[in-house]
Amino acid sequence: MATPASAPAAAGSAPRGKPTKPREYPLMSRRQVEGLIAQGRVVTIIDQFVVKLDGWLAYHPGGDKAIQHMVGRDATDEVTVLHSLEAKAQMTRYRIGRIEGHWRNFVPPIQGGKFRTLEKGDPGIDDAEDDDTLRFFGASSPSDVSSREASPVFDTADTHVRRRPGAASVSSATSATSATDDDHDEKDMDGTAFLDSETRKQIRLDLDKYPALDDETQSEIVRKYRLLDERIKAEGLYDCDYRAYAIEVMRYTLLFAGMLTFLRWGWYFPSAACLGCFWHQLVFSAHDAGHMGITHNFHVDTCIGIFIADFMGGLSIGWWKRNHNVHHIVTNSPSTTRISSICPSSPCLTVSSAT
User: Considering the entire predicted model, what is its pTM?
Assistant: First the structure.
């Protein structure tokens, strides 16, 4: 997406017309990145570079929540898929360092992640700590993630990485014992403790059902995802079919004309029904415009979205983008603006009250 003219510019930019050699970035450890996040910095990883987005957070067209959910994580795929090449090029001005090798994601602060400051004299060398993501979801190490049946989408035919002889039977016995203990304890629980118990049950079920969280498994998922993305591009499935929009415009016109006709005749109920259907159908085009899915031009699609959502529907397209885009980044997390009605667990309530 294009960068607004009001966006802050990087300091020390070279004058136009003068050739510049590529900038050298310092190599940063995971511990150093953790220290920056502990200081409240908005830091993420894009294409093996450490990017500090504090100055861009308030200007991000997709809202600040989408960025906050990527703090401490490798956001390469999210940035590549959801941004234009021009927008991605603008992000280079926020680079502060680089990393080497595979990046182990932190749990972002907005999701309840805890970070340690880099104390004076700390060499900034990575500790041999447990993987934060696994610990957050209830497993202390990759070996604690129980074996399960292979996923038809993500798992390869060679499953020796995750599977161990006899692991399935051990996992089943452990799950049965845990379930019995939980059922026994539920009798003496208060409301919050009961919710915590149910959350732990669901986490165990998810760990058995979905691909494991160890680095090798997740790297394989990323590899397959990128191949799928390239295949979709090659087949032209990201390109908009404008003939379908011609049909949509005809539908909108028919509903709007019906609303005016019935209103003129004094048939107010049919007129209101046509107006409601007109607004309802417009939402789909506003959604596409908000995702830059019509012309793929940030300014043109934004103007289309403003005309449809703001002018015709009375809904701010900017507000919608700030609240909606995060659901494409963290697909299973509800919008915090609706947290009181659809919060699924007690940890969700705790994290949301803090943010």
Answer: 0.68
